[in-house]
UniProtKB/TrEMBL annotation, chain A:
Domain Asn/Gln amidotransferase, chain residue ranges per copy: 331-494
Biological role: Allows the formation of correctly charged Asn-tRNA(Asn) or Gln-tRNA(Gln) through the transamidation of misacylated Asp-tRNA(Asn) or Glu-tRNA(Gln) in organisms which lack either or both of asparaginyl-tRNA or glutaminyl-tRNA synthetases. The reaction takes place in the presence of glutamine and ATP through an activated phospho-Asp-tRNA(Asn) or phospho-Glu-tRNA(Gln).
Top-level enzyme category: ligase
EC number(s) from the headed UniProt entry: 6.3.5.-
Reaction equation(s) it catalyzes: L-glutamyl-tRNA(Gln) + L-glutamine + ATP + H2O = L-glutaminyl-tRNA(Gln) + L-glutamate + ADP + phosphate + H(+); L-aspartyl-tRNA(Asn) + L-glutamine + ATP + H2O = L-asparaginyl-tRNA(Asn) + L-glutamate + ADP + phosphate + 2 H(+)
GO biological process: glutaminyl-tRNAGln biosynthesis via transamidation; translation
Record Gene3D superfamilies: 1.10.10.410, GatB domain, N-terminal subdomain
Name by which UniProt lists this protein: Aspartyl/glutamyl-tRNA(Asn/Gln) amidotransferase subunit B
PROSITE patterns: GATB
Alphabetical list of Pfam families matching this protein: GatB_N, GatB_Yqey
Organism this protein belongs to: Nitrosospira multiformis
Single GO term (MF): asparaginyl-tRNA synthase (glutamine-hydrolyzing) activity
TrEMBL record, chain B:
Family affiliation: Belongs to the GatC family.
InterPro entries in UniProt: Asp/Glu-ADT_sf_sub_c, GatC
PANTHER family assigned: GLUTAMYL-TRNA(GLN) AMIDOTRANSFERASE SUBUNIT C, MITOCHONDRIAL
A GO BP annotation: translation
GO MF, one example: glutaminyl-tRNA synthase (glutamine-hydrolyzing) activity
Gene: gatC
Gene3D superfamilies: Glu-tRNAGln amidotransferase C subunit, N-terminal domain (1.10.20.60)
Protein name according to UniProt: Aspartyl/glutamyl-tRNA(Asn/Gln) amidotransferase subunit C
Organism: Nitrosospira multiformis
Reactions performed catalytically: L-glutamyl-tRNA(Gln) + L-glutamine + ATP + H2O = L-glutaminyl-tRNA(Gln) + L-glutamate + ADP + phosphate + H(+); L-aspartyl-tRNA(Asn) + L-glutamine + ATP + H2O = L-asparaginyl-tRNA(Asn) + L-glutamate + ADP + phosphate + 2 H(+)
Subunit structure: Heterotrimer of A, B and C subunits.
Automatic annotation (TrEMBL), chain C:
Signal peptide per UniProt: none
Key words, A-Z: ATP-binding, Ligase, Nucleotide-binding, Protein biosynthesis, Transferase
Positions in coiled-coil regions: none
Residues forming the catalytic site: K76 (charge relay system), S151 (charge relay system), S175 (acyl-ester intermediate)
Gene label: gatA
NCBIfam families the UniProt entry points to: gatA (TIGR00132)
Record-given protein name: Glutamyl-tRNA(Gln) amidotransferase subunit A
Organism whose genome encodes this protein: Nitrosospira multiformis
One Pfam family recorded for the sequence: Amidase
């Protein structure tokens, strides 16, 4: 039988605000336990929530970026359940009328060397508060509760069950991950839990249009776990169905050690969350003016930029995808092209090649690249105008990198950047190509005189001998000759 | 509609209130009386009316995103039933 | 001095005829003496109160005193008060020393009023008789066989027995007005949103409102001047220009139009109550007011609607009491859920548990629309009824309670009976309107009767004027129970 996996994702993106969604406590990661849990976060008797404008603004930004409807009014509701990391005994979330409704995400999937496009529809994205953390190390048989994370703003982004494989689910999650960082609403740090996925997985016979019973796999905090968990879960469900069993709707947890999913014990009770509008919070109004303002502050989106890079710069989809994988990269690249508009492809090769490799090696983002886009563009210009070869340029680049030293501030904020750095290295070490043809001709004569055997072989029709002679000239020029020019002169002299 | 003993137990469990068989029976009698009173609501046709959640027809005021709180853990934990190493202790949590 | 108005006390303090320490000591002495009998206070803390009085005296001496500076005020134990035991009348919070101040407490501190103690109340403000308090019932100082009303019964008793010149209360369905009526004092529930709920332990968030309780309307106005005001920490707090609630006290009542809802003057009202209320209305006609019959057709639905909405909100508001971060935790349990279930079963009293069960049920799957949504729709109908009535009149009057204070124990085993006695006060909370109760005489067994005055939104100054003009012509509010 042919089975099809159906996947919908719920992504919790932690919004990059300074303070919590309903209190003035800090959201900074890594504080001492409960040091960032204020009276409101602890749900002391009598405390009340007040909504953070920054959280709402980020939700609007997301809604605009995915072409969704921004609801106004939007309503906050209480989701009631008991858990020690949930201090109020309810989570403030949204049920009816979420801030963001609808929208879609466009995916580019490169699979088996083939490029595919796919659209995943979004159901909604709503604002809610995060819970605290239960630490299971043994405190005399008890658990410890840290409420620093309680009240951190989250945007829960819910997709339609539009994905059909773990690869599509991962591509969707990655695209979303890029987008939320791109528009500056989430830092995307998966280790710190800033971007977490829950996957709803079901299987059905191919061709069926009815959805199977789904299981929800909670808290997948890496793309690899997401992929493995979905693959395991789909296999598990298919095995049950092929053995004539039925799937029980369940909440499951992925165990990365075993690579398996298991039912969560704390979710065994039938849940009845008793959602109702939070009487402590009034309807949230989002004016057209506010939406316009947010729209103005929105950068060009990765999808639009990708299309532009392909059309205007003639880049391949693959290059365009890489350059728009991160706003830092794209900004750096755009700045380089800005200085050298005549060759976007050369710029792309260098940004994705040398620059990327050096930064990777040092584990640094593009933002703090020691070489500014202007410095790189100046170097690339020297390749273009024939001053140096690409090979020499790589050597110059290495030296520029070493001389610039480690940077701590963004290239955008640097002052007094030495744009002539590359030129000075070229000049001080005499790396300019020998473009004076009489000097080259002299070199060629010397090489011909010293290699009579090769000359004879060439004249006997061996083209290989010609290449050896070119090599000898280049060697004599210590790489500074323009290979095309050497070719030309050599051929002329040999056929004279 | 009438309330059953199972309803009382189900609701007590949802609300995390331990309830004995005897207490549940007593609660059933009292709650039934209250629900008889509440049932009067059903006689009114309200299909054209919007629910009213708040006394005032005003919109949510928003707070500027700024950190205004300081660490008061020691003070807050001075009233806690059980703490250790800055953590609130509870019976083992099983996920 | 025990019977002096706030204005008189303030003048005495300003003129240095008496110090705040002397004044506070006097009321503390009386409170200590009477509390074993009346049980009006859960906490009295002489040292702290006197320290506050000393600070007030310094302020007054420096000429920076304000109208309530140095005056002892009794605080309902629902207001979180930093460093004070704050119990909300519950075993659940019987060990809770609040680490912070409610907004209302902060306002009194800002004018250097003296906190004379925390008053007894129905547990989590759920009750109309003060019998649900973990700390035992409060007695009605007019007749110790009678209840003082609730939930702000301790505050009402303290003011009536002159243990404090004034007190704070909170009102979710009548919890200021009904005990004020039953104890023969004045009490005001402001428009929803006027007094911040921050630090006021929540019962039903969309209905709760703090307000003053005192001997007279004039005292209430001075108290409200301190209590009312915008607070950014409460999303439902209204941003309005500060008002002086004493500004209209002296206005004559000529041309005032009083609406008398036909649904309020029915046979369910005890005859003694009806007589006193009608006499008071007669007095208003003499003062130049006219009366008009109005209709609030959905009045009889107010109790059912309230007993869906208030418990629903309460069931959720009280979930935070779980034995984890503060308050009571059961001594023995086998696991986490058992800890929750035992802590909450032992920490809450029976009335609170009853309301949590009702609230949980009406919100639960399959019942939400039939109960919660239906109740919210009827709530709107009730608010519309008032809006219609206020097109025809300036204020609405009727009895605060259909009976005088009932006997202790008389209704404690009959919750429905108890709930029905709040019919007049409840509708006001559902609409979010301001309302007050003032003493207008005595009924059965010489127990006090209260007149209910309902105003339009933000009409507090007008209502206080209406009440004050009556009190200029009557002396019910100056009468003291015998000890």
């Amino acid at each position: 039988m042919q089975w099809e996996t159906v996947i919908g994702l719920e992504v919790h993106a932690q919004l990059s605000t300074e303070s919590k969604i309903f209190s003035g406590a800090s959201t900074a990661f890594g504080a001492a336990p409960n040091a960032e849990a204020c009276a409101v976060d602890l749900a002391l008797p009598g405390v009340l929530p007040v909504l953070n404008r920054g959280a709402v603004e980020r939700a609007i930004r997301f809604g605009l970026a995915v072409g969704a409807k921004i609801n106004s009014p939007s309503i906050f509701a209480r989701k009631n359940y008991f858990y020690p990391d949930l201090p109020k005994g309810y989570q403030i979330s949204q049920y009816e009328l979420p801030v963001v409704e609808g929208g879609h995400i466009q995916l580019q999937i490169v699979q088996d060397g083939k490029e595919q496009e796919k659209t995943v529809r979004l159901v909604r994205a709503h604002l809610e508060e995060d819970a605290g953390k239960s630490l299971h190390e043994d405190f005399h048989g008890m658990s410890g509760i840290d409420l620093n994370r309680a009240g951190t703003p989250l945007l829960e982004i819910v997709s339609e069950p539009d994905m059909r494989s773990s690869a599509e689910a991962v591509a969707y999650a990655k695209t979303l991950h890029t987008l939320v960082r791109w528009i500056g609403i989430c830092d995307g740090n998966m280790q710190e839990g800033s971007f977490r996925c829950d996957a709803n997985v079901s299987v059905r016979l191919r061709g069926s249009d009815k959805l199977g019973t789904r299981c929800e796999i909670k808290n997948l905090n890496s793309f690899r776990f997401l992929e493995k968990a979905i693959d395991y879960e789909a296999r598990r469900q298919i095995e049950i169905l092929e053995d004539g069993g039925t799937i029980q709707q369940q909440t499951r947890l992925f165990d990365p050690e075993k690579g398996e999913t298991r039912a969560m014990r704390s979710k065994e009770d039938a849940q009845d969350y008793r959602y109702f509008p939070d009487p402590d919070l009034l309807p949230l109004e989002i004016s057209g003016n506010w939406i316009e303002e947010v729209k103005k502050g929105l950068p060009e989106l990765p999808q639009q930029m990708r299309t532009r890079l392909e059309h205007d710069y003639g880049l391949s989809m693959y290059d365009a995808l890489l350059l728009t994988g991160d706003r830092d990269i794209s900004e750096y690249y755009e700045a380089v092209v800005g200085k050298l508009p005549s060759d976007p492809k050369l710029c792309a090769n260098w940004v994705m090649g040398e620059v990327s490799a050096y930064l990777n090696n040092e584990g640094k983002p593009f933002d703090v690249c020691p070489l500014s886009p202007a410095q790189l563009a100046q170097l690339l210009l020297r390749i273009k105008d024939g001053t140096i070869s690409g090979k020499i340029a790589k050597d110059v680049f290495r030296q520029m990198w070493a001389q610039a030293g480690a940077a701590s501030i963004s290239w955008k904020n640097r002052e007094g950047v030495d744009e002539a750095l590359g030129d000075r290295i070229i000049d001080s070490q005499g790396l300019r190509q020998i473009s004076d043809s009489s000097a080259l001709e002299n070199l060629v004569y010397e090489v011909l005189a010293a290699n009579p055997k090769s000359v004879e072989e060439f004249k006997a029709g061996k083209e290989k001998a010609f290449n050896a002679l070119v090599g000898q000239v280049m060697k004599a020029a210590r790489g500074k000759a323009n290979p095309a020019q050497v070719n030309e002169i050599l051929r002329k002299k040999l056929t004279e | 509609m009438s309330l059953s003993l199972d309803d009382v137990k189900r609701v007590a469990n949802l609300a995390r209130l331990e309830i004995s068989e005897d207490e549940a029976r007593k609660a059933l009698i009292q709650l039934s009386g209250i629900f008889d009173l509440i049932e009067q609501m059903q006689a009114v046709d309200t299909s054209a009316i919007t629910p009213m959640s708040h006394a005032q027809d005003v919109m949510q005021r928003l707070r500027t995103d700024a950190v205004t709180e300081i660490d008061q853990r020691e003070l807050f934990q001075s009233v806690a039933p059980q703490v250790e190493a800055g953590l609130y202790l509870v019976p083992k949590v099983i996920e | 001095m025990l019977n002096a108005s706030l204005k008189q006390l303030s003048a005495m303090l300003a003129a240095r005829k008496i110090s705040s320490v002397e004044l506070t000591s006097e009321f503390l002495k009386r409170s200590r003496a009477l509390n074993p009998e009346y049980n009006a206070f859960i906490t009295l803390d002489e040292r702290t109160s006197l320290a506050q009085a000393q600070a007030a005296d310094i302020l007054i001496a420096s000429g920076r005193g304000q109208p309530l500076t140095g005056i002892p005020i009794a605080q309902k134990d629902i207001f979180c008060t930093k460093g004070w035991l704050t119990t909300c009348g519950s075993k659940m919070l019987s060990n809770f020393i609040s680490p912070y101040d409610a907004h209302v407490i902060g306002r009194f501190n800002a004018v250097a009023a003296v906190n004379i103690g925390k008053t007894n109340m129905d547990e989590f403000a759920m009750g109309s008789s003060n019998e649900t308090s973990f700390y035992g019932p409060v007695k009605n100082p007019w007749d110790t066989a009678a209840v003082p009303g609730g939930s702000s019964g301790g505050s009402a008793c303290a003011v009536a027995a002159r243990m404090a010149p004034a007190a704070t209360g909170t009102d979710t369905g009548g919890s200021i007005r009904q005990p004020a009526a039953l104890c023969g004092i004045s009490g005001l529930k402001p428009t929803y949103g006027l007094v911040s709920r921050y630090g006021m332990i929540a019962f039903a968030s969309s209905l709760d409102q703090g307000g003053p309780m005192a001997k007279s309307a004039e005292d209430l106005a001075l108290m409200l001047n301190v209590m009312a005001g915008f607070d950014a920490r409460d999303s439902t707090s209204l941003e309005r220009q500060p008002e002086d609630y004493t500004r209209d006290l002296e206005k004559p009542l000529d041309g005032l139009c009083i609406g008398l809802p036909k649904e309020y003057f029915v046979k369910e009202i005890d005859e003694d109550v009806a007589r006193a209320v009608e006499a008071a209305i007669g007095q208003y006609r003499k003062l130049g007011a006219e009366t008009v019959e109005v209709s609030l057709p959905n009045t009889k639905l107010s109790v059912p609607v309230y007993y869906v909405l208030a418990p629903a909100e309460a069931s959720s508001n009280l979930s935070r009491f779980d034995g984890v971060r503060y308050g009571y935790r059961a001594p023995d349990y086998v696991d986490l859920n058992d800890m929750y279930r035992k802590t909450r079963a032992q920490g809450f009293g029976s009335e609170v548990k009853r309301r949590i069960l009702i609230g949980t049920y009406v919100l639960s799957h399959g019942y939400y629309d039939a109960y919660y949504i239906q109740a919210q729709k009827l709530r709107r109908l009730m608010a519309q009824d008032f809006a219609e009535a206020f097109k025809q009149c300036d204020v609405i009057m009727g009895p605060t309670s259909p009976t005088v204070a009932f006997d202790l124990g008389e209704r404690s085993s009959a919750p429905v009976q108890m709930y029905l006695s709040d019919a007049y006060t409840i509708a006001v909370n559902l609409a979010g309107l301001p309302a007050m109760s003032i003493p207008v005489g005595f009924g059965h067994k010489n127990r006090p009767v209260g007149l209910h005055i309902i105003g339009n939104y933000f009409a507090e100054a007008q209502m206080l004027n209406v009440a004050h003009q009556y009190q200029l012509e009557s002396d019910w509010h100056t009468r003291m129970p015998k000890e």
